[in-house]
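Severity: low
Component: inverse-folding endpoint
Summary: output formatting inconsistent between runs
Steps to reproduce: submit the following structure tokens with default settings.
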């Protein structure tokens, strides 16, 4: 049987979880449709999800559609709130296709646009479902125009709607249409030629075949209308999922899977969610996983079928399963066998990283240790919360996408770990960029270097989003590889705090000098550390050399910027522009119109919340704001500093005292 791993994505409150319930009901998996408001849905299983009526964690549920050529659908219901975009990101790495849900009332919203851009960039075949046609204020033509203008011009309406905005609203599918032919002809020269020569020669089967092919290639996006509450249009959508989205593909015979979700079981054990891309994994198989290639034996497997995860003896290519027996597993890890590691496939990198952070403080001082352990477990499920421990001040901070995520962390710590916490004011996370070229070196046992290591490093700027690269300008055999690896790992760790304390995400680092003392011992004695270099010597010296090179190169602090679009009454434009100026926004030329004008531009992420608070009074409650992360921009004036959590290699004396354990 064919398998399709399908994601349901949407802006919050567009009805994505309700659509999941309706699909499960239509497939016969559940006897009664759950309600988001009542907290009775299949995929929102967390108590907090049921309480708040939003999806926080992605959930997997399986069902079968199609009678002639059945397809097993592993459906992943993802969060719609932008604070939990990291969950969506991890799901995208394992999808074969997606359904993007748009509200017929609210139309295309900010998160809808972010999601569609990402789906297109990853070339994930996508159907669009316009939900809530039964609601007052629902639109057809207006929403179609917004989809075409804001999401993609390559969309095809798959039917018409009657009774729009009423409980009896219905969706009627149709086959061939001039709009369908026009869109398909953009990518199909043969179809265009046939249409020009003899329009009647184009059969419905030929059009359907071309539509399926172009949908599978993410060139065209069929649009369905309906209501998850009444069920209208859902059968047509199910047929589209079965007929137009491509089933799971495999990439070879060798065992290869990707971990996209990690959670804890009732006994505290780790449960890893894996998407298998190739090969077969059986219970009691010993496999390797992770960047370091650690190995472990699979102790249990559950695969998803007909609405539940059931015990199985194996998981095969294309399936999603839960695995037990991987104690050190992390999100993004690859699963493979033997020494044949597949190319790295990271479950991430599609969306911007969190741009906010806050310090978490337990209300009871004695809970500090428990808090660290609890946050460590939460970071297993969401690595992007990036727990930072400041041992000098005994403080713990986490990264965030927004205030709702902070509330969820607070509630989770209280409900699941019994830890009541408070948060300091949320601050913006900046980054540092290397400005020039800098170089430094230290020779073992010379000029105040107490370590048996010689290291030379050169730092150069790197293109944005290129990451940190480490290159050798010494012979690979000039010293043991373990020492070179120690330098590289420490370089990457040290760059998490630049000259101003912010991470340096992009840089080119060159190892220009190397030297060590070979393993030695006194006569008839054991190994003498004071005479022989160890990896610790290189780990301790690297931050000093790197920071000296960075000081020579210089860095600049950049703050996160959002791209905004504002729709405001034209007579309020002047007041809104003045407010934008006070918030350090950089507006484009306004698109003025008689009644409603559009303002676009860039604004510091730190100012977005203030703009949201001021907008109602500035626009009589009629202003509409869309805002998404865009880029990082140099901070004007004096750059902000972030408190360091390391032993501060910028202060040589204190650093050496710490590393040599004198204080």
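Observed output (run 2 of 3):
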């Amino acid at each position: 049987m064919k398998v399709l791993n399908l994601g349901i994505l949407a802006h919050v409150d567009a009805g994505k979880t309700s659509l999941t319930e309706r699909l499960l009901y239509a497939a016969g998996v559940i006897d009664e449709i759950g309600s988001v408001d009542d907290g009775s849905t299949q995929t929102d299983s967390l108590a907090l999800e049921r309480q708040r009526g939003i999806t926080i964690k992605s959930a997997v549920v399986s069902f079968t559609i199609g009678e002639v050529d059945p397809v097993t659908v592993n459906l992943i219901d993802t969060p719609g709130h932008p604070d939990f975009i990291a969950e969506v990101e991890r799901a995208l790495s394992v999808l074969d296709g997606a359904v993007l849900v748009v509200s017929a009332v609210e139309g295309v919203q900010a998160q809808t646009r972010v999601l569609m851009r990402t789906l297109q960039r990853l070339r994930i075949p996508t159907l669009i479902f316009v939900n809530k046609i039964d609601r007052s204020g629902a639109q057809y033509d207006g929403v179609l125009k917004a989809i075409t203008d804001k999401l993609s011009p390559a969309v095809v309406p798959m039917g018409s709607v009657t009774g729009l905005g009423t409980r009896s609203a219905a969706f009627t599918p149709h086959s061939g249409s001039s709009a369908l032919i026009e869109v398909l002809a953009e990518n199909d020269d043969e179809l265009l030629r046939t249409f020009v020569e003899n329009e009647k020669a184009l059969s419905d089967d030929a059009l359907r075949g071309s539509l399926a092919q172009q949908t599978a290639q993410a060139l065209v996006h069929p649009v369905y209308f309906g209501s998850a509450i009444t069920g209208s249009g859902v059968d047509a959508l199910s047929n589209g999922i079965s007929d137009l989205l491509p089933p799971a593909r495999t990439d070879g015979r060798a065992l290869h899977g990707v971990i996209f979700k990690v959670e804890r079981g009732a006994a505290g054990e780790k449960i890893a969610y894996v998407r298998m891309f190739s090969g077969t994994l059986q219970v009691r198989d010993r496999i390797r996983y992770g960047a370091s290639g650690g190995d472990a034996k699979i102790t249990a497997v559950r695969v998803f079928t007909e609405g539940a995860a059931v015990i199985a003896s194996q998981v095969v290519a294309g399936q999603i399963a839960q695995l037990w027996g991987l104690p050190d597993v992390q999100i993004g890890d690859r699963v493979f066998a033997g020494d044949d590691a597949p190319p790295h496939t990271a479950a991430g990198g599609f969306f911007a990283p969190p741009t906010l952070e806050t310090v978490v403080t337990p209300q009871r001082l004695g809970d500090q240790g428990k808090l660290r352990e609890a946050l460590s477990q939460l970071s297993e499920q969401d690595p992007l919360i990036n727990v930072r421990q400041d041992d000098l001040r005994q403080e713990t901070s986490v990264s965030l996408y927004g205030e709702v995520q902070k509330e969820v962390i607070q509630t989770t710590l209280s409900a699941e770990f019994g830890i009541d916490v408070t948060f300091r004011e949320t601050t913006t996370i900046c980054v540092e960029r290397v400005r020039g070229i800098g170089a430094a070196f230290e020779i073992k046992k010379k000029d105040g270097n107490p370590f048996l290591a010689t290291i030379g490093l050169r730092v150069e700027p790197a293109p944005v989003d290129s990451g940190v690269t480490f290159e050798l300008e010494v012979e690979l055999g000039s010293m043991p590889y373990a020492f070179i690896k120690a330098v590289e790992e420490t370089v990457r760790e040290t760059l998490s705090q630049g000259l101003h304390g912010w991470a340096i995400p992009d840089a080119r680092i060159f190892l220009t000098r190397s030297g060590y003392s070979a393993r030695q011992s006194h006569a008839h004695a054991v190994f003498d550390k004071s005479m022989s270099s160890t990896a610790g010597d290189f780990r301790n010296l690297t931050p000093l050399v790197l920071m000296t090179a960075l000081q020579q190169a210089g860095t600049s602090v950049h703050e996160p910027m959002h791209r905004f679009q504002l729709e405001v009454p034209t007579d309020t434009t002047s007041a809104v522009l003045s407010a934008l100026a006070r918030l350090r926004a950089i507006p484009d030329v306004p698109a003025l119109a008689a009644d409603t004008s559009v303002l676009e531009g860039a604004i510091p992420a730190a100012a977005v919340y203030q703009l949201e608070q001021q907008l109602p009074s500035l626009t009589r409650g009629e202003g509409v704001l869309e805002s998404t992360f865009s880029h990082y921009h140099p901070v004007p004036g004096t750059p902000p500093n972030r408190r360091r959590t390391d032993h501060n290699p910028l202060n040589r004396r204190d650093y050496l005292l710490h590393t040599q354990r004198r204080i």
